[in-house]
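YM 10:42: Cathepsin l sequence, as discussed on the call
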Amino acid sequence: MLLKTALGVLLVVAVVESATSSSEWEKFKSTHSKVYASSAEETKRWTNDEYKKMLTYQMHNDTDGSSNIYTSEDVNALPDRIDWRAYGYVTGVKRQEACAASYAFAAVGALEGQMFRRYGSSRSLSVQNIIDCASKCQGCLGGCTIRAFQYVADNGGISTDEGYPYQATVRSRWG
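YM 10:58: structure's back
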């Protein structure tokens, strides 16, 4: 259930952020007889049924312009929960600290899971390697997960966390 809820929230955020005009929102409220006392209440009052009526999330891949469309039916097909630890797909907890590198943590986590899937063993990979070396990202000032993946592909791999440990700061300048 938690996984479905998280995906539902992501779908809502994506739709709200990508709405082309307020007239679409006004049309939705009119069609479904929605009236809210304030804009704060308005953003908190959506139900899962409302999401299903309005949402179609289109995820963009900024490296090649292609996209995939996910609908509420895709979300409903998911199990209520998955404990990836039980399957060995995740490594130990990593602390981000004050460095805004969630993009690098996300990329490394996904890569670790895929490495386990392919090779059957889990190794902690270096978030710091991406922070310092992915030139299209901005180190501890943020970045894009897709660009971090592209760096790893272009680089021919990524260091392990043991060989290139996390420092929560940029250790070098990129070109």
